[in-house]
Amino acid sequence: MSSSTLETLQFDNSCLSKLPLDPNPQNYVRTVPGACFSRVTPTPVKNPRLVATSREALQWIGLDEAQVNRPEFVEYFAGNKVLPGSEPAAHCYCGHQFGNFAGQLGDGRAMYLGEVINPQGQRVEIQFKGAGKTPYSREADGRAVLRSSIREFLCSEAMFHLGVPTTRAGTLVTSDSYAVRDINYDGHPKDERCTVVLRIAPSFIRFGSFQIAKPMDPYTGRAGPSPGRTELVQTLLDYVIQYHFPESLQHTEPADKYASFFGEVVRRTALLAAEWQCCGFTHGVLNTDNMSILGLTIDYGPFGFVESYEGEFTPNTSDNQGRYAFEKQPKICLWNLERLAEALAFALPQDRRQAELARYWPIFEGAYYTKMRAKLGLIDNSEPGDVELFKSLLATMENTGADFTNTFRNLKLMTLTEGPHGRGDQALVEYLLTQTSSAEVQMSKMCPKVPVRQLQMLLSLADQQPEMLVALTGKDVSFVREELAKHERWKEESKQYTPERKRQTDTEAWNAWLAQYRARLDRLVAQHAGADLAELDQRRRALMDATNPKFILRNHMAQTAIEKAEKGDFSEVHRLLDLVRQPFSEGEAFADSHYDAKPPDWASGICLSCSS
Fold first, then answer.
1. If DSSP codes are grouped into helix, strand and coil, which group holds residue 36?
2. What DSSP letter does each residue of 171-239 carry, written as one string?
């Protein structure tokens, strides 16, 4: 099968032919019972303009490269015209948001366009983000803006080239239509350009898709749009297995088939979480409606890569409690799998669900520690002490505020051919000291999270109504007093935490960890007695270079591209797209660039929300 034109893409829209469809053709906000999809129509935009394309992603759906240059191209991918064979629809799903069941959610600003059979015979779903209202838009306008769309477009492609399972982004189209957004929720809204992203994946079905039949939740009082109608979920379950988990069809017993499917979802999710933790990616809003049934990274909103290392890092300003912080992601993924298991209880006995869930941590830890050994260049073997070595590294990075990506990338400076205190070791110490945060930034990170004013209000409440404090926060007065004491200790410590003192303590911390690392490398050398050390070191460094990226999509880089794009200059978007396509490269294209530098201090103040 050859590549296709805009008019000859091979659509086969199984979601709409195999799954329950909303009989109401009207596109207005409402509860949608008894259906998995509702037909919709994209809302046109004024004067659409193509910002960027990922030609590799478009090749995945079999679209001929020359089609990008046709005048109709931007009209189709702005939603102003509908591709022949496309059947726009919005998907109905539910979700637990920040741990609480929220009832019906659905594609509020996304639109299923259809499934394309590509030249390799693969089924690939395409959808818009930002093409207008759907029955699931609630009080929103169904639009995405240039700012958030640039971030999603670039990060989708960045994650793909990092080797992390992800949806792709094919096109980015902006316009002269505007939407009002208050990004910081501070009462200062502004007009922003409506922008449409083409998303591409085998499927966008998610954990929340299986929650539409959930009965009323006793805590939130909310139910799915089709409470108790498990036959709808049964149809969805059988569809997903047929089209996306065919290996489970080899089991003739229903319980075995569904256990096989669920076990594969557990496996893919555990592997995805391991990949995130190894590259420093923080999703920001891991609700059940943002978890792919295929184990893909989906729904790029307030994401961020860890920079100055902090286990509690969260890029989402809405996540006040740090539920979705970087180091908590693996546990949250398991929690979400448990909610999926509950939604499948009608089809899968509890003992089978629990048996598959019990495989999560062994799979995650196996993948995570294997990749961490590669990131440290520990080739050919493992030792029981490696886990402690990894934990100690992260603790040292956190205590010194070291840059996550650059620290891992440059551990190769310690070579096998030099002994302790060699030039490579000393060069590594000096380099790492350049990657640590300033004393001012480090102290700001160490500041207790709950503001003093809020604590004082809680203390006043505790004095008058202690039972109300417990009801509202789950904490008693002792917690409030301890937090206030932390603020006092922090104020005293900050007075003494000078740049000179920080450099001294950072040097001591890194020398201590590097001594552990050198001892581990010495044992590696001993295990390869008689080997050519230069050749062994070259193999080790090649593994590290292939596992530790030089370039990631840092928030301040995306912000610079956004600010230029909002003025009509898309050159930085194109340059960053070229950059994220080669994250492990030492080539000449970006040899003299600043893109692998530690971010400036001001970058730590970039705020992101679910509209970012």
1. coil
2. EEEEEEEEEEE-TTSSS--EEEEEEEEEEEES---BGGGGGTT----TTT----SSTT-HHHHHHHHHH
Q: Checking phi first, is residue 82 left (phi over 0); if not, alpha (psi -120 to 50) or beta? A: beta
* Upper half-sphere CA count for residue 157 (Cβ side, 13 Å): 29
**pLDDT tens for each residue of 28-37:** 999 999 999 9
CA dihedral for 501, 502, 507, 509, sign (positive or negative): positive
- How far separated are the first and last CA of the chain, in Å rounded? 39
Asked if 499 contacts 385 with a C-beta cutoff of 8 angstroms, the reply is no
Greatest CA span in the chain, whole angstroms?
A: 76
pLDDT at 477: 84
Q: Is the pLDDT of residue 609 over 80?
A: no
CA atoms within 13 A on the CB side of 127: 24
Q: Is there a catalytic annotation at residue 289? A: yes
- Bridge partners of 316? 608
From 289, 403, 506, 537, active-site residue: 289
**Dihedral sign for Cα atoms in the order 382, 385, 388, 390:** negative
- Structure tokens, 409: 């990338």
Kindly report, residue by residue over 67-84, the tens digit of the pLDDT.
Answer: 999 999 999 999 999 999
d(C-alpha 385, C-alpha 99), whole Å: 35
CA distance 529 to 523: 10
Residue 114 vs residues 16, 198, 297: alpha-carbon distances, Å: 9, 12, 20
**Cβ atoms of residues 193 and 48 within 8 Å:** no
Query: 189-198 burial by CB neighbour count: b if 16+ within 10 A, else e?
Result: eeebbbbbbb
pLDDT digits (tens, 9 = 90+) for 313-335: 999 988 888 999 999 999 999 99
Helix H or strand E encompassing 558: helix 555-565
